[in-house]
Amino acid sequence: MMYVLLAFGIWAAGWWLNLRLSNGSSAELTAVKIAVPAIFGLTIVIVWELMVRGFEVNPVILPAPTSVLARLADEGSILWADFKQTVLKGALVGYIIGAIAAFAVAILADRSEFLTRGILPVGGFMAALPIVGTAPILVKWLGSDWESKAAVVAVMVFFPILVNTVAGLKDTNAMQRDLMRTYAAGYWPTLFKLRLPSAAPFIFNGLKIGTTLALIGAIVAEFFGSPTVGMGFRISTSFGQLALDMVWAEIVVAALAGSAFYGAMTWVEKRVTFWHPSQR
Amino acid sequence: MRSILPVLTVVAAILGIWLLAVIPMNMHLVADQGQRDGLVVQPETPAERQEFSGLGLAMRNPDLIPLTYNFKRPRLPSPQQVAGEMYDTIFGKKITSKRSLVYHGWVTLAPTLLGFVIGTGLGILLAVGIVYSRVMDRSVMPWAIVSQTIPILALAPMVIVVLGSMGIQGLFPKSLIAAYLSFFPVVVGMVKGLRSPSGMQLDLLRTYHASNTQGFWSLRLPASLPYLFASLKIGISASLVGTIVAELPTGARAGFGARMLVGDQYGQPLVSWAALFAAALTAAALVGLFSAIERITLKRMGMAAA
């Protein structure tokens, strides 16, 4: 009971602190802007821990954050091996293949107005489909190692990147294209100096959507067959052993990997499209 | 309307690639089967045939090519086989039958829709909270954005099993996943939408001495509708994907996801493929439905549909 009361107390204290911080005079400082969500997140984790202890929740249902942390610290080498297998091999390779393929198709299709008009609706339609359902089929075709995961990821990220790139390449106005023509620029100089740069915000939008899809694809595909390493494999086997703290440790790794991947893309976007209004 | 021809061309190209791919993908299986049925197959032992690619094998046995399109357990079924299987299981069976795709479709669709309604409702409420409360904006909004970069979908099967072990079964666990997946797109979209009125418009309402509630109903909410519809379309397809993934490796007996897995495990690829395409059609129908509602609503409100 003590734990539960303490949990309510901490929740109230965290909320009060955030109330003071975000309505106070220093609310516009960067430090405060970071501190407020951090306090909120920390409060949730502490309340979670206290609730689990207070109600003596069975660790098979919901493990306490401290035991997840302990797993993270103890099983570092296993988690690292899983990370390498799933993120660095499956997700990243598939992402790069899918992105390059989408890019190539977009630039080819872009030469014909007719194809562009066809690809945009079809690609947009495909992007909304449950493509992850092809995972069992692709695992069967390509075997259970990381190649099949990379294939699932490549198919999943292909369509969002394709649609965004094609849409981006159309995003120049007649005045800009005319200017290039007065410089006597041919197709390729126009593509590299005008249309690709102005398509960059769209392309990065597609690439950022792809980061989450890549991790989802790589992990889900491992549920259908994998070598004895990998995040999806670990999640499903630890789950079978009722080691929920290990499952949550993998979740934390997946969340960190997902945010880092997305963050990296955003960082590159900032460097490349520094001129765009949304970045200034 | 002028994009119909290009769309058809692209679809035809995809179908063409598919039709061509059927031959090399199934050639080895067809050759093995053909030999057992007493046909003359060019390299005579299966081991020798493994040396050849599917395409090379097809060149040597051109008379076997038609068989690849009607093989019973193909690696890659031909489009007409998938279409036939879909027609069979959608129209050819009673909808209460365990083999009817309509039955499995409803098993997947019901939790998707329930979860979507819950997720959208909560998402709109949270968005209103975020727009009107600085504390919530500051503390919750960053997490709402970060949560979209987390591959939470991959955990859907586990959530189902945990809830199952707590004795919660049926519609609810799958709806929870569907709700979670539609929740954050709606929150992010609605916050953007509710904030979209310009300072000038807000000032005008202030000169009318409108209260916060009046401002909400007559300015902020209508202004947010285009954003809401964009989020709804993302949310509904995410919900459907979530439900299907939740069904995939959890030993579910019914639903699109279960059909995909059953076909895969019991060597009935046609079942998997039919379920895959039926799921795709369902997703398309749902997104299409929301686009139609969006067009009608925005037209009646005097906003051009984007």
UniProtKB/TrEMBL annotation, chain A:
GO biological process: transmembrane transport
InterPro entries: MetI-like, MetI-like_sf
Subcellular location: Cell membrane
Membrane topology term: Multi-pass membrane protein
Domain of life: Bacteria
Record keywords: Cell membrane, Membrane, Transmembrane, Transmembrane helix, Transport
Domain ABC transmembrane type-1: 94-273
Transmembrane segments: 34-52, 87-107, 119-139, 151-169, 202-225, 246-268
GO CC annotation, single: plasma membrane
The protein, known as: NitT/TauT family transport system permease protein
Organism, scientific name: Sulfitobacter undariae
UniProt lineage: Bacteria, Pseudomonadati, Pseudomonadota, Alphaproteobacteria, Rhodobacterales
UniProtKB/TrEMBL annotation, chain B:
Subcellular location: Cell membrane
Gene Ontology BP term (one): transmembrane transport
InterPro entries with a match to the protein in the record: MetI-like (IPR000515), MetI-like_sf (IPR035906)
One cellular-component annotation, GO: plasma membrane
Topology term for the membrane: Multi-pass membrane protein
Residues in ABC transmembrane type-1 domain copies: 101-294
Main location as per UniProt: membrane
Membrane-spanning intervals of the chain: 7-27, 106-131, 143-165, 171-191, 227-250, 270-293
Keywords, comma-separated and alphabetical: Cell membrane, Membrane, Transmembrane, Transmembrane helix, Transport
PANTHER family: ABC TRANSPORTER PERMEASE PROTEIN HI_0355-RELATED, ALKANE SULFONATE ABC TRANSPORTER-RELATED, MEMBRANE SUBUNIT
Family designation: Belongs to the binding-protein-dependent transport system permease family.
Protein name per UniProt: NitT/TauT family transport system permease protein
Species this chain originates from: Sulfitobacter undariae
